[in-house]
Amino acid sequence: MKKIQAIVRASKFEDVKDALSSKEINFFTFYEVKGYGHQKGESLSYRGTAYDMGYIPRIQLIIILSEPYVNSALEAIQKAAYTGENGDGLIMVSDVDNIINIRTGLKGSEAINK
Amino acid sequence: MNDNSIALENEILQKANEALSAAEHAQFLTNNLWILIATVLVFIMHLGFSCLEAGFVQKKNVTNILFKNAMIIAIGLLTYCICGFNLMYPGLNEGGWFGFSGFFLNPSPEDMTSAYGNYTYWSDFIFQGMFAATGATIVSGAVAERIKLNAFLIFATIFVAVIYPITGMWKWGLGWLDALGFYDFAGSTIVHSVGGWAALAGIILVGPRKGKYTKKGIRPITGHSMPLAAIGVFLLWFGWFGFNGGSVLSADPESVSLVFVTTSLGAAAGAIGSYLTSMLLFKNYDLPMVMNGILGGLVGITASADVITVSSSVIIGFIAGILIPLSVTFFDKLKLDDPVGATSVHLVCGIWGTIAVAIFGKFDEEGIGTLTDQLTGIFACGAFTFLFSFLIFFILKATIGLRVSDVEQEKGLDIEEHRLAAYN
Question: What are B338-390's pLDDT values in tens digits?
Fold first, then answer.
């Protein structure tokens, strides 16, 4: 089993979700995160003074999958989140030792049925 | 002439007198009612100021700014009852500098009739009392987010009880400025620039918010709610119909309706002036600037609303609108931190509106509202208020302190001063 952590542009989140859905991956956790890096934040202006927002709004998804599904998920995310500009984000893959489904008590890949 | 015709003539005369006094009574009723409606409109301006200031501060300081606004209307009305009203309208000191006709309200039965004015003593007091409290509200926005609550409340009390009534007496209490020919219809100077001068003294002594002026330049501290600020601006415009319309001090149909027109057109032109100037300067559709442009137009029109033509009101408002982005930038250059822009709106546009009387005002008599008169009024009220306010703030700073600690600024005044966040 693998954990996929993908940090994508907030504006690309819906596309990523649809792409995963087309691969029949319909469950994941996500949260809003802020990034700071090479790409500058949005340029803003308040009462005549221009300033940099200081961060870039992003969304981080966490998807737990068993091996056979991982490659298609990675492909789908990369394709959907791609713009070619600086700051498209990162996808990280790591091993997961075990999973327990709280309701059913099932363990391992049975717990996520994927 | 026989007895019958004399009796008939007497009867007609009596009927005519009755009709006349009934008409006079109806007029008195209407005037009095209008002043009371105007009072209610000025009252709602306090909600306008509250929303505007709440919207323009950070969300961690909203409880604090609302607390100040709630206290100001309370302190303002009470102190105006205790001494302010009788300091501002001593009623015996024509052409003088100072007068006082005793503590508390003590009207006689005649004060409730048309012999007193176009309205009763009670209407007079409550209308002027609502006005008085607006002056201190101007200060609260300018020093927001870093002033100690108690220091501010002490200042606001002294301001409404003493400072505002004294300069107010010079003009509206028939003091020396009135005798000179100085003209200020509803208070571009007497209310707004006086509030602005006090705000400026406070800003200088309390210092800028932490982190506003850095080595890298100005770091804007953005207001947390533009919708709240917009509600505030529209409520203030709404209330201004009473602020200016009530300052006619009667329900005179022509004058009140003209004032409604000039007041609204001034506000409208202020929005356009501010929009175009900020577009040129900052290449941006700057909402806070446009909102302050509306308020600047309103302040600018306030000194002259009843003595100008409609086209003049548009010019006055438009220039006030242009002044807003320029003066906001100017005060920022001087590192005078004003979270809501009160000094630009009330001080700068108040001065402009008072000068505009000399340029656009049309008077029946000679020698009223000349440039010399207007500048004398601006300077005298400005110098007195600024120095007096500076002294009070200085004493407060030396004793109980004016400024909250840096840590408290970072945590926010809501938690540190009130132990209550505005949004939970």
Answer: 999 999 999 999 999 999 999 999 998 888 999 999 999 999 999 999 999 99
Q: Locate tokens 């000179």: which residue?
A: B180
DSSP state of B102: -
Q: Which residues of B225-240 are buried (b: 16+ CB within 10 A; e: fewer)?
A: beebbbbbbebbbebb
CA–CA separation, B324 vs B320, rounded Å?
7
Residue (of B243, B242, B306) closest to B37 by Cα position: B242
Residues 44-103 of chain A whose Cβ lies under 8 A from any Cβ of chain B: 44-51
> What interface predicted TM-score (ipTM) does this complex get?
0.75
**pTM of the model as a whole:** 0.89
What is the Rg, in whole angstroms, of the alpha carbon atoms belonging to chain A?
Answer: 17
Which tokens in the block code for residue A28? 């994941």
Does residue B361 sit in helix, strand or coil? Answer: coil
- Provide the β-strand partners of residue A50: A45
Joined together, the tokens standing for residue B317 give 């408002």
Answer whether B172's CB lies under 8 Å from B186's CB. no
Of B288, B325, B329, the CB nearest to A46: B288
Task: Identify the closest residue of chain A to B222 by CA–CA distance.
Answer: A46
- The token pair that represents B37 in the structure block: 């409606």
Torsion sign across C-alpha atoms B106, B112, B115, B117: positive
Nearest to B281 among A44, A46, A48 (CB): A48
Report the alpha-carbon distance of residue B409 to residue B198 in Å, rounded: 23
Give yes or no for A43 touching B (CB within 8 A). no
DSSP symbol at B209: P
